[in-house]
């Protein structure tokens, strides 16, 4: 595990281990169905992406690929660490490394087919879910907004495009460019078993 991102106290590890045991019903591994019981995630519009992130080998910091059916506590702790604010007294190089790691985690959540690109369809799905679940917009309206947003992202990533140009999607380098200047290091958090993951992992 990356010590810069997982340097948590024994007390904090014990808290997370208790949560892990509660979810797994005292088993040694967690499965997707275990996470689907979390009430705090029920109304989250990207609930499925959050759950899937725990089983995405790309997020285990061991150069893995593909997804797994179950995870142990070490993988659980590694994924939870992405929601932890960085330590205060670190170098700029360390801070940038943590930021890049968090952004890679977010990128992986939306690159659902694991091809290194967030396609229009993947991006549209996320935006549609976020907008249509609010109840304020219909599915077709949400789809139109998602398409327009993708074109804007394309213009930021690759510059002006001709009407017949085909935009393949957002690469990770494009993703970094889009989120340049956005404070992400301390703003990633989820509610987890009635406790805030940023509190658990400070």
From TrEMBL:
Q: How does it sit in the membrane?
A: Lipid-anchor
A single GO CC term for this protein reads:
ruffle membrane
Q: Which UniProt keywords apply?
A: Calcium, Cell membrane, Cell projection, Cytoplasm, Differentiation, Lipoprotein, Membrane, Metal-binding, Myristate, Nucleus, Protein kinase inhibitor
Q: What InterPro entries does UniProt report for this protein, alphabetically?
A: CHP3, EF-hand-dom_pair, EF_Hand_1_Ca_BS, EF_hand_dom
Which superkingdom is the protein from?
A: Eukaryota
Domain EF-hand, residue spans: 98-133
Entry-linked SUPFAM superfamilies: EF-hand (SSF47473)
Coarse class of the primary localization is other
Annotated GO molecular function terms are:
calcium ion binding; protein kinase inhibitor activity
Q: What is this protein called?
A: Calcineurin B homologous protein 3
